[in-house]
Amino acid sequence: MTRRARIVSWLAIGLILLFLFAPVFLVVLFSFNSVASTAPPLKGLSLTWYEQLFSNPEFTFALQNSLEAAGATICFVLVAGTAAAVALSRHRSRFLDALSSLIVAPLVIPGLFLGVALFAFFNKLGIELSLLTIVIGQSLVTIPLVVLVVNARLANTDTSMLEAARDLGANGFQTFWKVLLPLIGPTLGGAALLVAAWSLDEVIVTLWTNGGDTTLPVMIFGLVRRGTDPSVNAIASLVLAGTTCVTILASRFISPSDLTG
Questions:
Q1: How many domains does the chain have?
Q2: DSSP of 225-237, one letter per residue?
Q3: Is the pTM of this model over 0.70?
Q4: Which of 51, 76, 134, 204 is deepest in the core (most CB within 10 A)?
């Protein structure tokens, strides 16, 4: 590649990145705007919208719901996802291959379809929409992530220590608890953080499964529908900061091989 071609390539990449991240930068920047405006120019820097946000009961309610939903989702999908990954990694059969495809299906099925399907399912069974139905919906979306990450980690795990533990008389539970779990512990920690980031950012499925227990993404969606509100920028910036920090922290626990297998 010639020097001119490299310059053109880097220029094209720079323009693409600018196109993708400029709106994000503007949202964060105008969350500190001193006046009630979301359009340039910036009038001044202030924490007014953040102060109003944390004094707003609707925001604190949505934040609490988001954290509770994320915590419950993490607990469930870690247990269920790890159990499924261990079972799928130990045995191979047509049934388990079909089950594996079924488990990861929510990753490729449109979120709108899942949300409508869950809404119809809960309505048919007479289940009242609540924080519990939000957790069920988010668990359905995030459990494939845990299964894939843990399954990839198990594929790269040396099984000789597991065999040695069984040879020394350890039963299946003892082998898992004392040998396998410490080996995959960092990966589970990273998977939990990824689930947290996904849960805090999930809006489509949550929109169809909440019964008034509003989460932060749903609150943002409602504020945008009612019109331009400067506090939207502050909420979006907080969600962005939270998910970014959690994702970066997760990358410290999960290696590229845990994602690729």
A1: 1
A2: HH---HHHHHHHH
A3: yes
A4: 134
